[in-house]
Write a structure and sequence with these properties.
Strand content of chain A: 25-35%
Oligomer: homodimer
Shape of chain A: globular
Largest interface: A-B, 100 and 100 residues
Helix content of chain A: 25-40%
Radius of gyration of chain A: 24 Å
Structural class of chain A: alpha/beta
CATH topology of the largest domain in chain A: FAD/NAD(P)-binding domain
Distance between the termini of chain A: 57 Å
Largest sheet of chain A: 7 strands, mixed
Chain lengths: ~475, ~475
Amino acid sequence: MAKNEYDLIVIGGGPGGYTSAIRAAQKGLKTVLVERQFLGGTCLNRGCVPTKTILEDTLTIAAVRNSPFLKGDMKINFRRIMERKQMVIEGSRAGITGVLKGNGVEIMAGEARFTGPRSLEVKTPEGNREEISAGRIIIATGARVDYGPGLVVDEKCILSTDGALALKSVPQTVAVVGAGNRGVEFASIFNNLGVRVVVIEKEKRILPKEHRWLSGRYRKILSDRRVKVLTRTNLLAANPADGDGVILTLETGKGREEVKVGKVILTVSRVPSYKGLDLDTAGLSLTKDGLEYGPGMQTQVEGIYVVGDAAGAPYLAHKAIAQGIAAVDHILGLNPDGPLGVIPNCVYGDPEIGSVGLTDTQAKKRGYKVKMGEFYFVGNGRAGTMGKDEGLILIVSEAETGAVLGVHIMGPRATELISLGVMAIQNGLDIDRIKKTVLPHLTFSESFFEAALATSGEAIHQVQESGEDEHQA
Amino acid sequence: MAKNEYDLIVIGGGPGGYTSAIRAAQKGLKTVLVERQFLGGTCLNRGCVPTKTILEDTLTIAAVRNSPFLKGDMKINFRRIMERKQMVIEGSRAGITGVLKGNGVEIMAGEARFTGPRSLEVKTPEGNREEISAGRIIIATGARVDYGPGLVVDEKCILSTDGALALKSVPQTVAVVGAGNRGVEFASIFNNLGVRVVVIEKEKRILPKEHRWLSGRYRKILSDRRVKVLTRTNLLAANPADGDGVILTLETGKGREEVKVGKVILTVSRVPSYKGLDLDTAGLSLTKDGLEYGPGMQTQVEGIYVVGDAAGAPYLAHKAIAQGIAAVDHILGLNPDGPLGVIPNCVYGDPEIGSVGLTDTQAKKRGYKVKMGEFYFVGNGRAGTMGKDEGLILIVSEAETGAVLGVHIMGPRATELISLGVMAIQNGLDIDRIKKTVLPHLTFSESFFEAALATSGEAIHQVQESGEDEHQA
């Protein structure tokens, strides 16, 4: 094979892209990965990794603040928090470089542009142009943010999430616009840092994709921690104030209102990004949601695949990883039409949320007769030892068969615990199977077992009247 | 039914006992639970709950000590830690009382003694004697510690774990005797508190029941934190020193040695306890391991059952809970011969360990051809964000079928993560099934998926040569 000819070209080095490239190389394909900036994509450089790193440090700060057993005067060195964040990013990037190279993937820095359905031109950082070609191409170019009209990010007072992750000092007040996963995460981070936080959400509730009931409890928790939560509120404009800070123009049910804050962080929606790719040249055309794909993530042009954020919502790294594996398996003729597994969603605030599958309302709309199993962490021993008992586990199951339709968890470790729900749904483990599984005592996990028992009024560490569902979602 | 006549009498209010009683009452049996001291048993009053509560606080202390971003002078108020521990115990006891009563279980305080195979005399704290009888009786009287010769606990310098949980101040040096689960937990607690700790273990390695390799790594972690670990070392005697502290006489491979420490904590083995029960009167006889039982935890006397620590090793609350449910289901004629589910083991030190099923060595001894899947937390993004990447997941599977035989996890959240292994083994999910399950990104859980991939050399976030097992256990 000629030097510039490959079995597979992967465009984009985020989780979807690097997973595709690593798996392809493991399976013996000559593979090149083209990345125009940093390996690791949004997740590693601008998303999960930096936010969770900062959140982790602020959880220690909150633990110290709330501790009855630590006395003294503690000062937060915010620069050190940001330094650690940067070190973790750089370490993770080095790790991704290592696994790519260790698996035999060639890494090419530069911007890729289609010159045909099997070929690309790569403009390197030095300004050179290289032509590469391959039998298969995977597009993993990620997503970009989509600010609405009236909002111009200046990264001084009006911040993108990138700007928020690059702050040099702790502001006194912060408005977080959008109360989805990332909005709630930033609200938790700044609240832990002792900042006055207001959350602005246009929907009627925060975390609008989560179970209504978890969302309501989450709002109460934020409010109890003095985070101000405004729902059914639109941000019309954000303008730098005279001197310092920013004036927000809000539209609420009661009319317009102006609010001044130190910084505003826009955690807005994303759309797939194919910047500079010249999709036409490859014979690809866009719908309003981006590139369409069929089995194995193949686009309408045979041999060209799309994975990860570039393939549209949900914008989740584990979905990207699963799609990357599916695309390569399709290329290899393995499991060509297998559906992706069920995809969980995680909120890494304080507390966490993990969810997978349907809510009871969604299940009923689809015609299921539903049973609910609810277990509250007030009855969980591990929660007691941590002094964090505000969470719960909901299992939505089909009344007759006991098939698990959805699992919704709020509380410490919820992003880990949800994997139990994923395992159950993905592998068809019904309520009876979960009841027969011995999960270890003093863990949050055992509440998953208790929630299964609660489906039929049999929970041990919780008094309940019956297995009927009392709460609507 | 007469006032003192019941469908079921449960003797002992620990996890095995209260679970039995609650389940029986839920199923309509007139049930009384007799407890001579505190509801909740060893786990709640003297075991998991207090140790995890204290450990949790000391983890915050260690996080502050190791934090690069918190500056200042922090003092530990140890009394507050112990107060919180006591509050959590009392809150949990109240919770157990609540679920027992809420489910309609009658609680009787006092010491029970068999007067026949269906009847007991209960001596109440006031000195009254009441006769009660029932068609079925469950013995859930727990276990007691078994100090060897030469060791007399004075709870001043020579402490039981009870004494260690009741300390009024932080000692300067502590020797922990026994490096099983509880030994390692106490070592972690005191190490986090800044105490100089020496761990004394008679076996050739610490955590002798855990996978050899995890045990080796754990020892290194303890040593790195300046915990002194002595293996193949027997404690021959512990004698109060003149003035203060205690002199330990140790027998090592090199002979005898004396060591002086502030306090010594004996975390020794347990044996079933049937104190004061007069088992003979009920027609029960003891073997050297305690009461024998058959399907559904029934003893050799029909209608008398034994569950929890009273039924022997392993001394684990979740095993007691599972046995309690099994006994009641046997009484009700439900699932009368069903085996218990697989039982995980948890070490709540810092880091944690969770394990279930066989090690590779054990599996090979049983004639399995084994494949190993190993994933190291250095490749896990969540570990990076926490700065805690010393852990790993090992999956032991059958080479041909992919059946999961054992899972061994060390690291943050390992006691939660092991539930994924339990789910897999209990429900026959093989390596291929785990590979197709999408576990969420930025969690430790996804390393379970990666370890499954690693079984066939397909891990994404880790370079590996092949799927062959390189490490023996």
